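User: Just a sanity check before I run the rest of the batch. Below are the structure tokens for the first item. I only need the designed sequence back.
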């Protein structure tokens, strides 16, 4: 294979004078194999280094370093998240729409897997008006022009995957003080998206000098 020890050995032998050595030269073969192993290692290292310079091919801690360079501490790998999943998050974030209502919806959809409810008190499509989505219970809520550049966002926590080694409510695997039951919180869920993550995601796409009053619910 290109760049492996045998390939390097063949390349070194190709530049040696053919009449200097016998057909069977164990000492020479050992020396050349040592040189070939070193060059094969260098070639492999060079390929690895080149791969770590691109988001599409970086792996492990190098992908974490790319995220840190681009986003600071705002975008970190979740517990147990694979390189491919983390790479997709980085690429989405680099090209993310910002400063619009759609941006808020998209970032929360990506983060939680659930679409938020967004209400702008100065937007008649949300509040309703004469001839526009009018009628009791048809529109979103009371409108107001005294809240410029503000909106109300209801964000939903993602559907969690549970807590490892702990049974759910009503499961027959244990009882109080016995078996795989215990007091738990959302913070114990591995890879859980926290409320702080949701707030940070909204703040990251809001236009300057705007306010999003946020409610987070299940």
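Assistant: Here's the designed sequence for the first item:
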């Amino acid at each position: 294979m290109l760049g492996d020890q045998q390939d390097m050995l063949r390349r070194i032998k190709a530049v040696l004078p053919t009449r200097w050595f016998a057909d069977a030269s164990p000492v020479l073969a050992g020396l050349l194999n040592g040189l070939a192993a070193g060059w094969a290692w260098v070639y492999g290292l060079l390929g690895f280094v080149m791969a770590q310079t691109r988001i599409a091919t970086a792996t492990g801690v190098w992908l974490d370093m790319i995220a840190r360079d681009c986003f600071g501490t705002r975008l970190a790998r979740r517990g147990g998240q694979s390189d491919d999943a983390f790479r997709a998050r980085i690429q989405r974030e680099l090209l993310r729409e910002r400063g619009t209502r759609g941006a808020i919806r998209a970032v929360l959809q990506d983060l939680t897997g659930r679409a938020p409810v967004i209400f702008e008190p100065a937007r008649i499509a949300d509040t309703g008006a004469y001839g526009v989505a009018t009628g009791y219970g048809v529109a979103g809520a009371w409108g107001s022009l005294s809240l410029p550049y503000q909106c109300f966002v209801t964000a939903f926590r993602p559907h969690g995957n549970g807590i490892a080694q702990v049974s759910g409510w009503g499961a027959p695997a244990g009882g109080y003080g016995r078996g795989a039951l215990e007091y738990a919180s959302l913070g114990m869920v591995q890879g859980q998206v926290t409320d702080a993550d949701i707030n940070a995601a909204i703040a990251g796409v809001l236009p300057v000098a705007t306010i999003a009053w946020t409610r987070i619910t299940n």
